[in-house]
Amino acid sequence: MIERTLSGFRVSRAGPLALLQDSGRFGVRHLGVTQGGPADLHAWAWANSLTGNAWGTGVLEITFGGLELVAEGDLTIALTGADLGIKHNRQPAPRWRTLAVAAGDTLTFGTPANGLRAYLAVSGGFRGDTVLGSSACVVREQLGGFDGQGNSLREGDTLTVNRAGTPPAQRAAPESERHDYRQMAILDLLPGAQIAAFTGRSLFDAFNAEWRVDQRADRMGVRLTGPALQCSIGSLISEGISLGAVQVPPDGQPIALLNDRQTIGGYPRLGNLTPMAASRLAQCMPGQAVRFRAAGIDSTLRQHRRFLQEHAAASAC
Amino acid sequence: MNSPRLPCLERAGLDGWMVRLFNTIEENNLLWLTALGEDCEAAFGDALVDLVPSYTTLLVVFDPLRMTPCEARQQLVDILACLKPAEAGADGRLHELPTRYDQQTGPDLQRVAELSGLSVESVIEAHSSREYRVFALGFAPGFAFMGLLDQALICPRLDTPRQKVPAGSVAIAGQQTAAYPMATPGGWNLIGHTPVRLFDRNRDGFSLLRVGDRVSFVPMERACD
């Protein structure tokens, strides 16, 4: 019998947060189960494309750094997203391209130098426990991940990978896709139904002020601080919340809701970040400044379809 | 802001529409929301990603590769044009949740009694003598927001939420009641405990309770009293 899985990495040192993420958990949100999946869809998709993996394959999302992995086999990997001072056998590891690692090699994640979340894909894909149709790891819900229980990686964990069909060709992402997350993020926002309930002054502020990423930022949502936005609606009867919704509680400070958000909520919303804007925000460090820019639905749809199609095609060749 | 004319469709990002059917919480809303969800499943087919019903609305999430927002909107307009409510009584399963009401499992039972001016026994009687409807699921997997509570039992959330509410805790806040499927932080008033497993990843359907279901809490006899 052909062995389909092999051991990929052993965790020799755990960091604050390293989670397995496939594309997310869908079809169960009516049960109160959140979406999960990669906070930065853009970098996650590139990690899979570079390693020849199909869309949706499990990738490791490493937040802040601190993690150290030891390879237990010869593997082809790709590192995308944040520069967390990653070292391959004590040498700086190249990002946004395929990289061969041999059994015994170490991958060490330091501290954030540019961006917040790095993505590590391995050719063949990490193998997680599928729970409610997905291996997306959601700590709060105790679902998904390598053990199915929603745990972040711990020292001593062994990460199994699926054996790759054929070794992928050397690949690299074009320069234009390698984002510099230190630049001020311009976040495209699709206006929502309650936007007219904000005062004129607040709408001006929303799209012209610089917003600062607060310390209170995680995979559920990112708080932004700046001028207090005033809305004639204080709260709504709770309703479903979609990815990237920018809600404004009575203190006037917006919260952009990301992958692990609660499924329903009752604050008025300016609208929704586009999927790429939500990805970009997920790479911002507390203290960084961001701006909102109103986006149109047609151009956003065109861009997003192109992104999805390119990455579906990349894995097929 | 003036209330929008209902029903209305509101953009919810690149791949979503919010269908707003009502602006007040009524049990009969559920008949319409149930029917709307079923019609969406039939009409959208594989292009449907998620449906999130809640009190007065249904969030419809579709696959942006299979449908444009414009096509999805037209589909919803067509569904709304001939929407009929589900048949009353046929729209939700009935669940009886055996519940132990006591100070140990319900540390806020006394507080609720004081706020409502009722005895602890009357609080238990008021909570357990009513059939509730599930208006929404959220907060945590399988956490069902149920109502409506007896007016006498309406009391605010705790000023400081508890760091950890044990799984199975039966709680009330505002006009609503709920049972915690898993241990989470929580600010509701705890009045009892049910041993029923509300969320189980190995069970078909995962969550015991669904939007539209009917629930009653049945007091368990205390063996040692």
Automatic annotation (TrEMBL), chain B:
<dbReference type="GO" id="GO:0005524">
    <property type="term" value="F:ATP binding"/>
</dbReference>
<dbReference type="InterPro" id="IPR029000">
    <property type="entry name" value="Cyclophilin-like_dom_sf"/>
</dbReference>
<dbReference type="GO" id="GO:0016787">
    <property type="term" value="F:hydrolase activity"/>
</dbReference>
<feature type="domain" description="Carboxyltransferase">
    <location>
        <begin position="7"/>
        <end position="209"/>
    </location>
</feature>
<dbReference type="InterPro" id="IPR010016">
    <property type="entry name" value="PxpB"/>
</dbReference>
<keyword id="KW-0067">ATP-binding</keyword>
<protein>
    <submittedName>
        <fullName>Allophanate hydrolase</fullName>
    </submittedName>
</protein>
<keyword id="KW-0378">Hydrolase</keyword>
<dbReference type="InterPro" id="IPR003833">
    <property type="entry name" value="CT_C_D"/>
</dbReference>
<keyword id="KW-0547">Nucleotide-binding</keyword>
<dbReference type="Pfam" id="PF02682">
    <property type="entry name" value="CT_C_D"/>
</dbReference>
